Amino acid sequence: MLWMAGNTHQQIEEFRDPRLGVLQLRRELGCVGTVVIEGSRVEVILGSDGEAPSEVALQTIVELIDSWSGFRQEIIGFAKSQFDTDDWHDEVDLPDPESWALMSIQVLWRDDPQFAMLYFTVDNDERSWFVTVREWRPVEVSYDH
Predict the structure, then answer these.
(1) 145: how many CB neighbours lie within 10 A of its CB?
(2) pTM for the structure as a whole
(3) CA–CA separation, 62 and 116 (whole Å)
(4) Which of 12, 28, 31, 69 reaches 20 to 30 Å from 84, CA-CA?
(5) Looking at the chain, which runs of residues are DSSP E strands?
(6) Computed over its alpha carbons, how large is the radius of gyration of the chain?
(7) Residue 139, CA distances (Å) to 22, 29, 86, 97, 143 in order
């Protein structure tokens, strides 16, 4: 299969994982696919330089999916506690983390497969909120414009 981006051609291969299904291996990005978590479609990205993802990266994604309902509560509590700090004092219109909907799980660094970015959508908020997770612990909450 051939994927075209602008004037460049980039070959896409499929990577099959018995737990995650079919992922598209996109050179210079990694494996991209979709899973269903709590009834919603969630993008999954496993970063690489064109090779198949490591077993540790795959396991990180699978464990996040399998434990999502409990881990979601930890993410919510972490975000709320962060919003109560001085770092967020001047920020306006902070969303209620309870309203966040998981949009994407990204394990982007092959050499650090237990470092993940969880992206969320929030109704009526143009910002793309994310929580950085390292070894199953949330360590940062932020957003992209």
Answers:
(1) 5
(2) 0.85
(3) 12
(4) 69
(5) 2-5, 8-17, 21-26, 30-37, 40-47, 101-107, 115-121, 128-134, 137-144
(6) 16
(7) 30, 24, 16, 15, 14
Who wins on pLDDT, 37 or 145? Answer: 37
Number of domains in the chain: 1
Q: Could you give the 3-state DSSP secondary structure of residue 56?
A: helix
> What are the structure tokens assigned to 33, written together?
């696919």
Cα separation, 85 vs 103, whole angstroms: 26
Distance CA 126, CA 130 (A): 13
- The whole-number average pLDDT for the span 32-49 is 90
Residue 86 contacts by C-beta under 8 Å, 6 or more apart in sequence? none
Amino acid at 42: V
